[in-house]
Every structure is written in C-alpha cells, then in structure tokens.
Design goal:
single chain, alpha+beta, Diaminopimelate Epimerase, Chain A, domain 1, globular
Length: 270
C-alpha cells in the first residue's frame, strides 16, 4: 500500500486536498480522496509542481475525477501553500486557463484572473417549470449567472442542475451562480458547481463571474466607473473582494482576494 502526503486547505469554505508530488492516476485519486465518507473529503484535488523560481504548474481535479481548467479558490490555496513552502510572496501559477499571477500577505491571497471571455447577457432558457433570463461569462471556466430576490430561498441544487445540463450550454456544461444585489458594490452569491454536482460554500471563479455581470447590470444605461471593487458574500458567509478595471466595454486586470486557512497535514493510503 502506497502512502501519499497531503495538506488540507480551505478558502471561503471551499476545501481542497493539496499534493506536491507526482501522482500516477490523478483522476482516480480525486474520486477516492475527495469522497467525504470513505476518503479525506474535499471539493477538489490540487496538484502543484515547481517549474522554476517563482513559477508553478497547477492542476485541478473535481470530486467526479474530471479535470477543471481553473479554480479561483484553489489557486488562492496554492498561492499560500507555495508562498509558505518556497518563501515567495509573488508567484505565477500555470493553469489550463492560462497563467495566473498571485500575491500573498500572511493568510490572504490575491490572484489575477485570466481574461474573461464569451460574455452573453439575457439568454432565454426554458427549464422544466419556468423560463429564466440567464447571463453567461467564462472567467477561467464557464459560468451562468442568474439574478434573484430572496437568495436564501433559492433551490440551488434543483434549478442549478437544470441549467448546468441545459442544451444551451453543451457540450462543456456550466457552473451556475444565483446572485442577489444588495448594494451597488455588494452582492450575495450561491453556486452550483460543475464537477462537484451540487452547491458548494463558495466558488472563486463564480464570485468573479457574478461580480462582473452584476457590475454590467447595476450600471446598465449609466456611466460605468473605470476602476471598481465588488464585494461578494458567499454561502460560507465570507466576503471575497473582486477588483477590476473597465475600459471600452472590456474587463481588465481582474483580481480575486480573500483569506486562506491551512487546516491539517496527513498521509493518505492509496
């Protein structure tokens, strides 16, 4: 029986298993280790490999074994992990969604997101029991954004699952965010995550996607600020900061910031 050393980390309620050694079958390991009853239990498996100096390769695997292009809260965890182990406050993470710049200060990690793309607003989507206006943006991974009132009453798993698998978003599928606007720079977000196939306590790329779309809706028909900070409250009750610039109908320099907790270290029997 082989033993693998791991670190358990949490960012905004998203918990991850971090491994910095080569893994033979990461897809299988993710399915087994992320299982909460028979494994370690986590929202995802993160693999990190040092390339050179301040550059690291990052791979993200969902609990169902699928590999994700990017994970905002996972990237923040790895930034803190690498900062602690390799004594560097500024680093770069190489992901399938592109190169992510990261800055750390004690237990706070701030990451520069890949350029948002494929923005679409007010898509009419017919579900089993209703028709919804859904917005879409790729903030590293695909995200649908639905604006609601009474966020705490929303059946995230039921409605989220229907949108996640809707033909409009195939073949990739999409993560689904339900957003309530509390103020011009403050929103609440609940997310159904693709790959987890259920609601999670938070989603970094989801918070970013929700913040950008909310900005467009809040300032629709108005003069939009060039520099902005959106605060997003997650199901975990933690508030994440999303900084960005807006110029010529484009989002530039998008950063996600929040705290990270190092929970424990251990060995997992494979």
């Amino acid at each position: 029986m082989k033993r693998i050393n791991f670190t358990k980390m949490v960012a905004s309620g998203n918990d991850f298993i971090v491994i910095d050694k080569p893994v033979t079958n990461p897809h299988l390991l993710a399915r087994r280790a992320c299982e909460r009853k028979t494994g370690i239990g986590a929202d995802g498996l993160l693999l990190i490999q040092k390339i050179r100096n301040k550059d690291f390769r990052m791979r993200i695997f969902n609990p169902d074994g699928s590999e994700a292009e990017m994970c905002g809260n996972g990237a923040r965890c790895l930034a803190i992990y690498a900062s602690s182990k390799f004594k560097t406050k500024n680093l770069r993470l190489f992901t399938k969604a592109g190169i992510i710049e990261a800055q750390t200060n004690k237990d706070v990690a701030k990451i520069k997101m890949s350029h948002p793309k494929d923005r679409q607003l007010d898509i009419a989507v017919q579900l089993h029991e209703r028709s919804l206006k859904v917005n879409y943006i790729d903030s590293g991974v695909p995200h649908a954004v639905v604006f609601v009132e009474g966020l705490h009453n929303i059946d995230v798993n039921n409605i989220g699952r229907q949108i996640r698998y809707h033909k409009r978003f195939q073949p990739r599928g999409t993560n689904v965010n339900f957003v309530e606007v509390y103020d011009r720079n403050y929103i609440g977000v609940r997310t159904y995550e693709r790959g987890v196939e259920g609601e999670t306590l938070a989603c970094g790329t989801g918070v970013v996607a929700s913040s950008l779309i909310a900005f467009l809706k809040i300032f629709e028909g108005k003069t939009k600020p060039k520099n902005f900070l959106m605060k997003a409250k997650t199901l975990s009750t933690e508030v994440l900061n999303v900084y960005f610039n807006y110029k010529e109908d484009k989002f530039l320099d998008v950063w996600l910031e929040g705290k990270v907790n190092n929970i424990c270290k251990g060995e997992y029997n494979v």
